[in-house]
Amino acid sequence: MTDRNQQTKRARKVVSGTADDTSKKAGRPGGANGTRMNGTGANGTGANGTGKAKAAVVRPRPADERQAKAKAEKEALLRADTFTNAPKVSRRTLTKEEREVLAKQAEAENKEAAKLATTAAKGRFGRWWARLQSGPNKVSWGMMIVALGVVYGDIGTSPLYTAQTFLSGQGGIGSVDREAVLGMLSLVFWSITLITTVKYVLIAMKIDNNGEGGIFALYSLIRRRGAWLAIPAMVGGAAFLADSVLTPAVSISSAVEGLQTLPPLEKLFDDNPSLTLMITVVIIVVLFMVQSRGTESIGRVFGSIVLVWFSFLAVVGLVNLAQDWTVFAALNPVYGVRFLFSPHNDAGIALMGTVFLATTGAEALYSDMGHVGRGNIYFTWPFIKVALVCCYFGQGAWILAHSRDPHYTTMKSLNPFFQMMTPNVRYVAVVLSVTAGVIASQALITGAFTMVSEATRLNWMPHLQVRYPARTRGQLYIPVVNAVLCVATLLVLAMFKDSEHISAAYGLALTITMITTTILLAVYLWYAKRRVGAIVFLVLFLAIQILFFIASMAKFLHGGWFTMLLTIAILFVMYTWNEGTKLERAQRRHMRPKDFLPTLEKLHGDFRIPYFADNIVYLTSDSETKRLDTDIFFSIFADHPKRARAWWAVSVETTDQPFTREYEVQNFGTDFLFRVRIRLGFKVSQSIPAYLHQIMHDLSKTGELPQQKSLYPKVDADPNIGTIRYVLIHKALMPESKVSARGALSLQTKYAIRHVAGSPVKWFGLAPYNPLVEVQPLFVSTRRPPRLKRIERAAGSEPVTGDLPPVR
């Protein structure tokens, strides 16, 4: 009994304490009921404590109670919204940093304009310079340095191995004579002159697509001249991208292996055979990691080094030319043609494969035009060519001077480039060559970014996230491509181990790119009404480059198979993506307002159907604002109709200006359907949720969008805009679709690539908002299956048909 009494007392104490706490909270201003107990204590007595139960109790009226409850709910809602942040935009259309950049740019342009005006008044040369700086061939010292670092790396490493490969093919330095040396120099000189100078610098670079170069940009200009032109464009682009994988591997590994020729390091490399490979891997990984900084910042660093490198090539070449200036007789093309078909040419037609090594950077030069500007290449190429010619002819003079020297005739691996220098100078050459190998890789990497960007515009590759680290749109960075190139290059190193085996596969794919570029250039010249020139151009350059291709095919079984396999794989991706896109577009239909507005208006007012969301936002690639894609229309009515207070069809465009931020809206005369086109600069982050919130607030202020008040907390914490649901539509092939096996393979491959390449959900910043990815059937024509036959079943009997009896 005692225990029970104690428990009862404790229970009463707890109840009393709870009542006291509640009454104290209620008597506090801003309490739970929102009122104050004026003059009354916790026990209902007066303020002086003398009042008893007779004192009157103040009770709130029902209306006041409802208002207090509503106020408490609103305060609770606002407090809940503070736990998340709404996607907001600034009041300004430009950030402080962007305003500073534009101000500096305007100031620089004003200074340049004033300088040009002053220069133009100084005579004929001044007027020419002013016209040059006002046109597409504009030059600047800073961008010329960038051009050196971005464009010429690949062609700048050719002197490292061209002469060495020539001697190896002829049986060594003791087997060559003056005829052979002059023949090789003549072929090298005229190959550089015709392929690089004439074809690419003087002809191809004048043909650009809004400043962009490369085979895809060229194809974009002539694509309407025939559907067959897509074949050489795809093949050439795939071959160039395949070569972009091999160039970093062969350039850097061959340069790093030059460290083995230095006496102090010989023992270290002998004791650690894999050290060269490890150093190469580290350099390649670091190179790909710095790509996100942009080609301009990389180019400024590399450009100064390349300037030193080509100056070094010219100086060492001239030093050796001083021993024998007669090698300049090789400028006569007769020496080259005579030796090519001479019985003394031990390499035969394969000699052209060696000569081709001197031109390997020509295609990258054209592809990288958009990164540095055409004028900067025009002004730097003469210096580059003079330096290359001096180096090649200097090596030729050294070979003639030492062709009978027993010390060199017995040397196992002779490289005239290093041997023509004194030992002290050779240390500098090795260091510079390693750096030049890295820069050569940079030229192909930036070219690959440009090629993929152009392929994306042609719908030959998936739309990938593109970044523009520099001030111009031409200098871009594609993270997915950068990662794929890095992994593929490391795989090449793992397979082939050293530069000797990698070089067997090097260059073969690039000859294919050169041939296809020649075909497209000839077509462009033909339709530009230069038909005689087009025919001469086609015959001359096809003849030369087919010789290069035949000679390079000798490498096929020694590693060229890998290049061709990689080319075919990239070509398969482009072809299937293109074919899949064509099939999708063939079934795409658009609706005019008179077709979709009545149905949407009826759904909007049908109160029997609950709201799917206050706002349903569809992202579409269709930039036309006066129509609606049928995919969106049928998504709204698929399964259960998606009723909303407002439907939005949003397209996003990227402009050629860096900081554009603008939008336009078509509401079709309604307050529930909005067609929005957002235009963003190429350096503007595509934060679609924030911009959509701004657009919705703008339309609410103008009355175009009815007021939307959120009753409950939302992820975006914006109580003045209702709930938003983002929807992305993907297509899927129906089993009954009447499509060829090739078409089905193309669509399946495209969808698989899209899954790997990434989703617009990430690009547009929609992932935190749980977007709905909806799959719709691809409505291509379908096969009609045979009709079903109705059968009659008698009571208590099996069905009577002409088919086999049922299995029991």
Automatic annotation (TrEMBL):
<dbReference type="InterPro" id="IPR003855">
    <property type="entry name" value="K+_transporter"/>
</dbReference>
<feature type="transmembrane region" description="Helical">
    <location>
        <begin position="347"/>
        <end position="366"/>
    </location>
</feature>
<comment type="function">
    <text>Transport of potassium into the cell. Likely operates as a K(+):H(+) symporter.</text>
</comment>
<keyword id="KW-1133">Transmembrane helix</keyword>
<feature type="transmembrane region" description="Helical">
    <location>
        <begin position="560"/>
        <end position="578"/>
    </location>
</feature>
<feature type="transmembrane region" description="Helical">
    <location>
        <begin position="302"/>
        <end position="322"/>
    </location>
</feature>
<feature type="transmembrane region" description="Helical">
    <location>
        <begin position="502"/>
        <end position="527"/>
    </location>
</feature>
<feature type="transmembrane region" description="Helical">
    <location>
        <begin position="534"/>
        <end position="554"/>
    </location>
</feature>
<dbReference type="InterPro" id="IPR053951">
    <property type="entry name" value="K_trans_N"/>
</dbReference>
<feature type="transmembrane region" description="Helical">
    <location>
        <begin position="427"/>
        <end position="455"/>
    </location>
</feature>
<feature type="transmembrane region" description="Helical">
    <location>
        <begin position="378"/>
        <end position="401"/>
    </location>
</feature>
<feature type="transmembrane region" description="Helical">
    <location>
        <begin position="141"/>
        <end position="161"/>
    </location>
</feature>
<feature type="transmembrane region" description="Helical">
    <location>
        <begin position="272"/>
        <end position="290"/>
    </location>
</feature>
<feature type="transmembrane region" description="Helical">
    <location>
        <begin position="181"/>
        <end position="205"/>
    </location>
</feature>
<feature type="transmembrane region" description="Helical">
    <location>
        <begin position="226"/>
        <end position="252"/>
    </location>
</feature>
<dbReference type="InterPro" id="IPR023051">
    <property type="entry name" value="Kup"/>
</dbReference>
<keyword id="KW-0633">Potassium transport</keyword>
<feature type="domain" description="K+ potassium transporter integral membrane">
    <location>
        <begin position="144"/>
        <end position="590"/>
    </location>
</feature>
<dbReference type="Pfam" id="PF22776">
    <property type="entry name" value="K_trans_C"/>
</dbReference>
<keyword id="KW-0472">Membrane</keyword>
<dbReference type="Pfam" id="PF02705">
    <property type="entry name" value="K_trans"/>
</dbReference>
<keyword id="KW-0406">Ion transport</keyword>
<dbReference type="GO" id="GO:0015079">
    <property type="term" value="F:potassium ion transmembrane transporter activity"/>
</dbReference>
<keyword id="KW-0812">Transmembrane</keyword>
<keyword id="KW-0813">Transport</keyword>
<dbReference type="GO" id="GO:0005886">
    <property type="term" value="C:plasma membrane"/>
</dbReference>
<keyword id="KW-1003">Cell membrane</keyword>
<keyword id="KW-0630">Potassium</keyword>
<feature type="region of interest" description="Disordered">
    <location>
        <begin position="1"/>
        <end position="67"/>
    </location>
</feature>
<dbReference type="GO" id="GO:0015293">
    <property type="term" value="F:symporter activity"/>
</dbReference>
<feature type="domain" description="K+ potassium transporter C-terminal">
    <location>
        <begin position="617"/>
        <end position="775"/>
    </location>
</feature>
<keyword id="KW-0769">Symport</keyword>
<comment type="similarity">
    <text>Belongs to the HAK/KUP transporter (TC 2.A.72) family.</text>
</comment>
<feature type="transmembrane region" description="Helical">
    <location>
        <begin position="476"/>
        <end position="496"/>
    </location>
</feature>
<protein>
    <recommendedName>
        <fullName>Probable potassium transport system protein Kup</fullName>
    </recommendedName>
</protein>
<dbReference type="InterPro" id="IPR053952">
    <property type="entry name" value="K_trans_C"/>
</dbReference>
